[in-house]
Write a structure and sequence with these properties.
The structure is a single chain. By secondary structure, the protein is α+β, with helices and mostly antiparallel strands. The chain is built from 37 helices and 28 strands. A hairpin with a 7-residue loop joins strand 10 and strand 11. One of its GO terms (biological process) is plant-type cell wall organization or biogenesis. InterPro entries: Cellulose_synth, Nucleotide-diphossugar_trans. Its main location: Golgi.
Length: 1225
């Protein structure tokens, strides 16, 4: 029993459904046949009879190509064997259709009837009235699936009455023969009681009514119902053959049963049956294989042929789909606030603790201790200051935020081909990277070399990157180490680009303890990594041997100079006729330092000499690597290129690398690091003039190669023209696992800095910061906001960048003329007109015309794109995709002139422009000045650390570092940079944060007193309160609990751990009792007496030695005595002895006062717990007994002896002490 159905019009195949039994065909004859675009579907699985009840039926679906008639072009499917398509040479694919059992499908016919051949109505010109082959349908079942997919049948609910009627009609062979309908047939009233047509086609009443309403033709003979079939039988066969099953579907309406399948209507195939344009109902047989729905036009689907439907005459189609993402301006960055579930309780706890502190201090002031008024007064004074200090520290933390950058959007916007940039050159602005070093002995050249290599290998356009090394010591060792670094970079940088290694500092990469094969798929990676590792080991040997090589070379050249001088003297004597014995002794020659090419080093010599000492040498600029070309330069195989690795297809260009050592002469104030950075600003403006500047310390390498791109996202996004710098957090390596002295400083970088980011921006911390060059030049932002009124709640918007430049008449006539420079303001923030500004440029920036001409160029290159939302004066896209001008001798000569020691005379460098002078912490002052002019800053916390450096792990070095920071804060407090004198452009909470920076060292004075008070209380037997009142204890408990809860919430939204928070609290006490009081003293001496403060350079560790991890933390256990250790040691000793004495007195007293002992001992224990890391640092390395241990032992012995004398005094002194000897209670 077979039924051949065609797919919808437009398809090239027909479908044959052939239900068979398992024994009729072999399991292998069910396949999908492919031939000439046709596909046949059959089943390869064993097939069972359709009449089998209770089991699913497997039907054969065969898709074969159809033929077209020669005349009309209509599609047909022949039932003749000869007219079919040859299936023998076709390709087959398996396809299975499962027909599930239904309530209607019962055993209606025997297997024999199923096997009986179907009568052929048209064989040998037979009789006309021959019924078409009987077909078995399953009503109430909808099929889903498709080609090469599992086809499933879904059974609908059928009423029992309709099922019984259908079964009875089926048993009497009187059921409707319409496809999908098995309702009882409609019997005509004529003779024979057959169907309504003479052909005998059985049809139910509902289907008959539908056929009459549609076309009036009989579905069997295709003749109208009104007339009988009197035509030739041969034509019937041709008509039957000419009418394809596809056309039959269009003409035959859905039955009443099929109407329950769907309520959808086809909107694409119109009715050709005279239905008045009414669309035909939805055909599920066609939907089973393909959809004729249309999607229209859009970014989900754009029709390639331009016939998407639904466009109509009002839609102008395109042959090619447009770029829908070109106008989708996704932001480069996003800002999210901390979850309100954390932030709201955090703010509430701050308010609760503030109220509790108010009640606590009120109670303390109103309840003095008459027994010890002096003790009460000191304690209350300290507590009031601590409350004020806590408030200054907590207020800026009310608005923490999170930021993230989207590097994909940055690449799409600035590095894709456009009409102005057809080659797709990078349109990103240039970045000049500054690295500063001063002493090769304290800052090893190998550490600096690793930092330089990580910069050269950064993931940023090569032609837009330039690296400058400032050697403030002018040492030949640093110079030649940089030359070796440039040579090794030709191997290291292509290796990093080819394999995408991270981090890109070779020392950090080869020293990491993880699987280096992770995420590496190139087969040559292991071999090339081994070669580069061997080359780096040789590079380290060369760099580490440079000091000895320079010394030997210099000695050899100096010896030759002495011989030549002596020979010259002898020749002059012989020419004068002087006897050899009468020759004077040769004058001592100067021990010069020689370069490898045989010329004297113009910088600092190993043996100091005039014009060649650390404070007296010429300026030096050397371009180690020339500026690269704008087009990529691809490498080749090692045999062709002479390199170490295969760089085929890898860009082997290197960024420009420049060595700079500014001129130093006696009698000039060179302003330490700030002066060196300003010299780099002027040099880079002439040689590369990148609109953005990244400064790094020599020990801070690039740990994330994409860090520069993330910083650019914030500079180039909407509102980025108001951002003066992007500050990255500092991360450190080589710190002991316990972080004994809180070197990571995570509470500051992850809590305080992130909280300031929600205000006006974080402060500048000296390294890892991307600056806008025009902001360093002292210009104002294009827009600013002034805050007036109570707490700055009244805001006034200021637009500081004028649309034109020049005279008033020029501005009126040339309204479209752009102004290249932001306005210059005087010290009172009054804008100067354009003529005054232009005249002041040389006086403010110096006499270099080239440098002054570079200022508007840098401002223009740092602008946002014109199509950026909110950009009032942007640059067109593709404006920076131009090659850089090559260096020439005149440019280098001009760069040398701007690093002379007298260039800054009578200019505003250091006062308003560049890094600000006059403070040890020039970084904080520089950032403060920018915020004071209305600029904003951004804190960029990347998922992978952007930069990593080293920190001093030795206690003495750590204390001296903290001393320098605190001294700078004291200088800020006593200067015009105090936040109390800030302009209205700085937000109120930003003022509070900067004011706290200058105030926190003074807390140490009160902390010293408060740490001694518990010991004084224990010694005197008095307490800060007269008695432990319940109100006092309750308020103290509330203050303590709220502090702990605030700490937990800070840990929650910042990500720091509890151990890191506790280490920070401990070192706050250690620094507050050692370095901070010394800083306050030094600051007062400088302000009152004018005593200059000495600057100590922090030593940078050179890395772990060969002894492994044991020596990696060797400096941690070194005890280097310093005067800063005296106050903490004294506090620990006094509190320890006081606890012992008070315990003994209370234990053996006739009337023990346990409350006073408990209160004093608790606070003494609090002090000792915070000073525990300091005490541990004094003990030195484990397993060794340093001298300090013997000192401590002597102190303990003396303490025990005194206690014993007090407990058991001599017999003659018992009456004086006031008690008898020792006795058990």
């Amino acid at each position: 029993m077979s039924r051949r159905l065609s797919l919808p019009a437009g398809s090239q195949v027909t479908v044959t459904v052939s239900p068979t039994r398992g024994k009729a065909e072999s399991p292998g004859d069910g396949v999908i046949k492919r031939s000439g675009g046709g596909i046949g579907l059959t089943s390869p699985a064993p097939r069972h009879s359709l009449g089998g009840a209770g089991s699913s039926t497997v039907a054969t679906l065969q898709l074969s190509p159809v033929r077209r008639s020669g005349g009309g072009g209509s599609r047909y499917a022949s039932l003749h064997g000869g007219a079919g398509v040859d299936d023998s040479a076709d390709e087959f694919v398996h396809y299975t259709v499962h027909i599930p059992p239904t309530p209607e499908r019962t055993v209606a016919a025997s297997a024999e009837s199923m096997d009986a051949p179907a009568p052929n109505a048209y064989e040998d010109g037979g009789a006309a009235e021959v019924r078409p082959p009987q077909r078995s349908y399953i009503s109430g079942t909808i099929f889903t699936g498709g080609i090469n997919q599992a086809t499933r049948g879904h059974v609908l609910n059928i009423s029992a009455a309709s099922s019984a009627a259908a079964a009875a009609a089926a048993s009497a062979n009187m059921s409707c023969k319409m496809r999908g309908c098995e309702m009882p047939a409609f019997l005509a009233s004529g003779a024979g009681g057959g169907g309504p047509c003479d052909c005998g086609f059985m049809i139910c009443g509902e289907c008959y009514a539908d056929c009459v309403a549609a076309a009036g033709n009989c579905p069997g003979c295709k003749e109208p119902y009104s007339a009988g079939s009197d035509t030739d039988d041969d034509n019937d066969g041709e008509d039957d053959e000419a009418v394809s099953s596809s056309e039959e579907r269009v003409q035959l309406p859905l039955t009443s049963m099929a109407k329950r399948f769907s309520i959808m209507h086809s909107m694409k195939i119109p009715s050709n049956n005279g239905g008045g344009g009414k669309p035909a109902d939805f055909d599920h047989a066609r939907w089973l294989f393909e959809t004729k729905g249309t999607y229209g036009y859009g970014n989900a689907l754009w029709p390639k042929d331009g016939h998407g439907g639904g466009g109509g005459a009002g839609f102008a189609g395109f042959e090619e789909p447009p770029n829908f993402g070109s106008r989708c301006r996704r932001p480069l960055t996003r800002k999210t606030s901390v979850s309100q579930a954390i932030l709201s309780p955090y703010r509430l706890l701050i308010a609760i603790r503030l109220v509790a502190l108010g009640f606590f201090l009120t109670w303390r002031i109103r309840h003095p201790n008459p027994e010890a008024v002096w003790l009460w007064a000191l304690s209350v004074t300290c507590e009031v200051w601590f409350a004020f200090s806590w408030l200054l520290d907590s207020l800026p933390k009310l608005c923490p935020i999170h930021r993230a950058a989207d590097l994909d959007v940055l690449a799409e916007r600035f590095e894709l081909p456009t009409a102005r940039n057809p080659k797709g050159h990078s349109d990103l602005p240039g970045i000049d990277v500054f690295v500063s070093t001063a002493d090769p002995e304290k800052e090893p050249p190998l550490v600096t070399a690793n930092t330089i290599l990580s910069i050269l290998a950064a993931d940023y356009p090569v032609e837009k990157l330039a690296c400058y090394l400032s050697d403030d010591g002018g040492a030949l060792l640093t110079f030649e180490a940089l030359a070796e670094t440039a040579s090794f970079a030709r191997t290291w940088v292509p290796f990093c680009r080819k394999h995408g290694v991270e981090p890109r500092s070779p020392e950090a990469y080869f020293g990491q303890k993880r699987d280096f094969l992770r995420n590496k798929v190139r087969v040559d990676f292991v071999r090339e990594r081994r070669k580069v590792k061997r080359e780096y080991d040789e590079f380290k040997v060369r760099v580490n041997s440079l000091p000895e090589a320079i010394r030997r070379r210099s000695d050899a050249y100096n010896a030759g100079e002495e011989l030549r001088a002596r020979r010259r003297q002898q020749e002059e004597a012989m020419a004068a006729g002087t006897l050899s014995g009468a020759l004077p002794e040769a004058a001592a020659t100067v021990k010069a330092t020689w370069m490898s090419d045989g010329s004297q080093w113009p910088g600092t010599w190993l043996t100091s000499a005039p014009d060649h000492s650390r404070g007296d040498h010429a300026g030096i600029i050397q371009a180690m690597l020339a500026p690269p070309t704008s087009e990529p330069v691809l490498g080749a195989e090692p045999a062709e290129s002479g390199g170490l690795i295969d760089t085929t297809g890898v860009d082997i260009r290197l960024p420009m690398l420049v060595y700079v050592s500014r001129e130093k002469r006696p009698g000039y104030d060179h302003n330490k690091k700030a002066g060196a950075m300003n010299a780099l600003v002027r040099t880079s403006a002439i040689m590369s003039n990148g609109p953005f500047i990244l400064n790094l310390d020599c020990d801070h390498y690039v740990h994330n190669s994409a860090a520069l791109r993330e910083g650019m996202c914030f500079m180039l996004d909407r509102g980025g023209d108001r951002v003066c710098y992007v500050q990255f957090p500092q991360r450190f390596e080589g710190i002991d696992p316990n972080d004994r002295y809180a070197n990571h400083n995570l509470v500051f970088f992850d809590v305080a800095m992130r909280a300031m980011d929600g205000l006006q921006g974080p402060m500048y911390v000296g390294t890892g910061c991307v600056f806008r060059r025009t902001a360093l030049y002292g210009f104002s932002p294009p827009r600013a906001t002034e805050h007036h009124g109570w707490l700055g709640r009244k805001k006034i918007k200021l637009f500081l960048r004028k649309p034109t430049m020049g005279k008033k008449t020029d501005r009126e006539n040339n309204n479209d003329r752009e102004m290249m420079l932001p306005p210059i303001e005087d010290d009172a923030f009054q804008q100067l007109d354009d003529i005054e500004s232009s005249a002041l440029l040389p006086r403010r920036f110096g006499s270099s015309a080239t440098f002054v001409a570079s200022i508007p160029v840098a401002e223009y290159q740092g602008r946002l794109l014109q199509d950026t939302p909110g950009a009032h004066q942007g640059r067109p896209a593709g404006a920076l995709a131009v090659p850089r001008e090559p260096l020439d001798a005149a440019t280098v000569a001009e760069a040398i002139s701007v690093i002379s020691c007298f260039y800054e005379d009578k200019t505003e460098w250091g006062r308003r422009i560049g890094w600000i002078y006059g403070s040890v912490t020039e970084d904080v002052v520089t950032g403060y000045r920018m915020h004071n002019r209305g600029w904003r800053s951004v804190y960029c916390l990347t998922r992978r650390d952007a930069f990593r450096g080293t920190a001093p792990i030795n206690l003495t070095d750590r204390l001296h570092q903290v001393l320098r920071w605190a001294t700078g804060s004291v200088e800020i407090f006593f200067s015009r940079n105090n936040a109390l004198f800030a302009s209205p452009r700085m937000k109120f909470l930003q003022r509070v944060a900067y004011f706290n920076v200058g105030m926190y060292p003074f807390t140490s004075v009160f902390l010293l007193v408060y740490c001694v008070l518990p010991a004084v209380s224990l010694f005197s037997g008095k307490f800060i309160v007269q008695s432990l009142n319940a109100t006092f204890l309750a308020l103290l408990l509330i203050i303590t609990i709220t502090l702990c809860l605030l700490a937990l919430l800070e840990i929650k939204w910042s990500g720091v751990t509890l151990n890191e928070w506790w280490r920070n609290e401990q070192f706050w006490v250690i620094g507050g009792t050692s370095a901070h009081p010394a800083a306050v003293l030094q600051g007062l001496l400088k302000v009152i007496a004018g005593v200059d403060i000495s600057f100590t350079l922090t030593s940078k560790p050179g890395g772990a030695g060969d002894d492994g991890e044991e020596d990696a933390f060797a400096e941690l256990y070194e005890v280097r005595w310093s005067f800063l250790m005296v106050p903490p040691v004294t506090i620990m000793m006094v509190n320890a002895v006081a606890v012992a004495v008070a315990s003994a007195r209370t234990l053996y007293s006739e009337f023990p006062q346990w409350s006073k002992l408990l209160g004093g001992a608790f606070f003494s224990f609090w002090v000792l717990c915070h000073l525990y890391p300091f005490a541990k640092g004094l003990l030195g390395r484990r397993g060794r007994v340093p001298t300090i241990v013997f000192v401590w032992s002597g102190l303990i012995c003396m303490t025990i002896s005194l206690l014993w004398v007090y407990i058991s005094p001599p017999a003659g002194a018992r009456e004086l002490i006031g008690g008898g000897g020792f006795s058990f209670p």
